[in-house]
């Protein structure tokens, strides 16, 4: 049994959220700063790979501005749809 001073005084879900955000923030930062023998981090390699894909794809550069904006919107919407903060933002804006 948890003493009532702790159970009522400390919001355990907030503490768990802070610990999780801190852990994942440190993990992401450590991965971002890891440099391999070539002097490139994993993020640099992914960025170069993405640039190559964009350069090879002619549809991206020949699409109209409206099509590019619609594509960007659809990609961001699809990527963020399952995110809880995105759903919370929708709920807050609807209230």
List keywords for this structure.
flat, single chain
Structure description:
With 95 residues, the chain is mostly helical. The protein has helices at 4-9, 12-33, 42-56, 58-62, 65-80, 84-94. The chain is flat. The two termini are 38 Å apart. The relative contact order is 0.04. The mean pLDDT is 76.
- Classify the beta-strand content into a percent band: under 5%
Order of helices and strands: HHHHHH
Assign a percent range to the helix content: over 70%
- Assign the structural class, choosing from mainly alpha, mainly beta, alpha/beta, alpha+beta, or little secondary structure: mainly alpha
- Uncertain segments: none
Number of helices: 6
Give a count of the beta strands, DSSP E runs of length 2 or more: 0
Rg result: 21 Å
Distance between the termini: 38 Å
Major pleated sheet = none
Identify the overall geometry.
flat
Brief overview, please?
With 95 residues, the chain is mainly alpha-helical.
Question: How are the elements arranged and paired?
Answer:
Blueprint: H1 4-9, H2 12-33, H3 42-56, H4 58-62, H5 65-80, H6 84-94
């Amino acid at each position: 049994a948890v003493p009532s001073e702790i159970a009522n005084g400390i919001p355990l879900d907030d503490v768990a959220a802070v610990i999780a955000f801190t852990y994942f923030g440190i993990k992401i930062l450590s991965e971002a700063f890891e440099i391999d023998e070539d002097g490139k981090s994993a993020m640099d390699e992914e960025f170069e790979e993405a640039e190559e894909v964009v350069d090879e794809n002619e549809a991206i550069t020949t699409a109209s501005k409206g099509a590019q904006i619609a594509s960007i919107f659809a990609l961001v919407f699809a990527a963020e749809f399952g995110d809880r903060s995105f759903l919370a933002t929708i709920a807050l804006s609807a209230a």
